[in-house]
Design goal:
By secondary structure, this protein is an alpha/beta fold. The protein folds into three domains: about 1-115, Response regulator (Rossmann fold); about 135-290, 2-Layer Sandwich (Beta-Lactamase); about 295-495, Hypothetical protein af1432 (Orthogonal Bundle), CATH 1.10.3210. It contains 21 helices and ten strands. It binds fe (ii) ion. Fe (ii) ion (FE2) binds next to loops.
């Protein structure tokens, strides 16, 4: 606590002016003890010069001095410095300047010299509080001015890359940071244009950024985009960029652990930045042909899929027992989807959902993931986070938004005893119910560290037992139907995925 106080105190510089050196020394001792940085002068004219040259926050001065008195000293200072906080010391009450003078010179307080300095210390402390509040207000005011200056620039209709540059240029003076980036869904530009812009360490090509992000940061970016909330990390902060319909367009990430009042400013600024981006998109969309849009969308999707695929392989590679699991789940989910005659787009969602359903395990500690003994309560709770984490990772870019519910709810149960939300029956999205069955079937028919695989008949019996409680009976029926030709399925699976 003491350390914290002295850290705060040392941010403030105090000048003590008194023609008696003994008084200066006594005050210095007291102030140093409280952690304040303090200089002392006996000559009023020298003190005025020092205040001109340096950034002092507070002046404590004697009233009766030579060659000029305290009120004259203050009058000189006020000619060039209106902000300095001034406390006047008087030898005796009767020797104090008239109240009008104190007011006119904007002297914030005065007290009588005494043997003890309790009263002075109290005045200094309340003075420091005022200075600190004034600093905050000033910082905020300056920041708002900077925003006002930057905003017209970011609203000009430049190509999106330039707008992002302008946004970052306007942003950096508001924060105590050199490293930041903007990541947005690029739905308009062609492949060689940016979907993100970074400064400092993040001044790199788009594809390198995605490699540079830790899975944890990706998860948090996704979370910010899903919840529309500002997310504070130990080393940075994520601000969501929302369009006029309150839908996420992307995020601004700033690396810093010291935002103070800057945070509110960035929130204001982010809103402006978001609408300028949204404007730019709108204008570009009007001028763009549909084929170009489709092409761009596909390219971007592929780029992000490549990244997640790399992450997914990391999850798979961690555990030899589950290697190939997500490919097989993806395959079974598609087979089930086809048996319901679902449209191609939904089959595609099942394919992607299957591949990425356990992507959230990337954030789970290896010793929990690979534990062969029974998991304790808190370990199990951690494992149970993976559908949600996976959903967040996929939410980092909006093009996967339809896959998100499949991943998020693949551990729900028809009877409501699943996780993360305990949804029941039809509350669980149908594609998620399909994925649950595909996931369970592959788990049952694969060896695990803690048990051997079931044969086909045993697996089917398990599904029959848990149909209507754990699994959707309609999906179980289709599975059993499909499995009548298990041999073809196994051959097809082996030739498609080489597993
Ligand atoms: Fe899972």
């Amino acid at each position: 606590m003491r350390k914290k106080l002295s850290k705060i105190s040392s941010d403030y510089k105090i000048l003590v002016l008194d023609d008696e050196e003994g008084i200066i020394n006594s005050i210095k001792v007291i102030l140093n003890r409280s952690g304040y940085h303090c200089d002392g002068y006996c000559d009023p004219l020298e003190a005025v010069e020092k205040i001109k040259e340096n950034d002092f926050d507070m002046l404590i001065l004697d009233y009766i001095m030579t060659p000029i008195n305290g009120d004259e000293v203050v009058a000189k200072i006020r000619e060039f410095n209106k902000d300095l906080y001034i406390l006047l010391l008087t030898g005796h009450k009767d020797l104090a300047p008239p109240l009008e003078t104190i007011k006119a010179l904007d002297i914030q307080g005065y007290c009588e010299k005494g043997d003890r300095f309790d009263q002075l210390l109290l005045l200094i402390e309340s003075g420091i509080k005022s200075i600190s509040q004034m600093r905050t207000i000033k910082q905020f005011k300056d920041g708002l001015n900077k925003i006002l200056q930057a905003v017209p620039k970011i609203y000009q209709l430049h190509p999106i890359g330039i707008i992002l540059e302008e946004i970052l240029e306007g942003l950096m003076p508001l924060v105590n940071s050199k490293n930041a980036f903007i990541l947005i869904d690029d739905i308009i530009t062609s492949e060689d244009k940016v979907i993100f812009k970074g400064v400092g360490e993040y001044d790199i090509p788009a594809k390198s950024l995605i490699e540079m992000l830790s899975p944890y940061l990706m998860e948090q970016i996704g979370k910010s985009r899903e919840t529309n909330e500002v997310i504070n990390l130990d080393y940075g902060i994520i601000f969501p960029l929302l369009n006029e319909l309150n839908k996420s367009m992307g995020v601004i990430y700033i690396e810093s652990n010291n935002f103070n009042e800057g945070r509110k400013l960035i929130e204001i600024y982010s809103k402006q930045a978001a609408s300028s981006i949204s404007n730019a998109f709108l204008h570009s969309l009007i001028n763009m042909k549909k084929e170009e849009l489709d092409k761009t969308y596909k390219e971007l999707k592929n780029r992000y899929m490549d990244t997640i695929e790399a992450l997914r392989l990391t999850v798979d590679a961690k555990d030899i027992y589950t290697r190939g699991h997500s490919d097989r789940v993806s395959y079974y989910a598609m087979k089930l989807g086809q048996s319901f005659n679902l449209p191609d787009e939904q089959i595609e969602l099942l394919k992607i959902g299957g591949i990425f359903h356990d992507i959230g395990k990337i954030g789970t500690a290896d010793d929990i993931l690979f534990k062969t003994d029974k998991l304790d309560y808190s370990e199990y709770e951690q494992i149970k986070q993976h559908p949600l984490k996976g959903a967040y990772i996929l939410s980092a870019i909006s093009m996967f938004k339809e896959v998100v519910p499949i991943v998020k709810y693949h551990h729900e149960r028809i009877d409501g005893k699943g996780y993360p939300d305990g949804l029941k029956g039809d509350e669980i999205p149908f594609l998620a119910r399909i994925l649950t069955v595909a996931d369970a079937f592959d788990a049952m028919t694969s060896d695990r560290k803690y048990r051997s695989k079931l044969n086909l008949e045993e697996a089917i019996n398990q599904f029959k037992t848990y149909s209507g409680t754990q699994f959707d009976p309609k999906v179980v029926d289709k599975l059993i139907l499909i499995l009548q030709d298990y041999e073809t399925i196994s051959t097809e699976l082996a030739s498609t995925y080489n597993i």
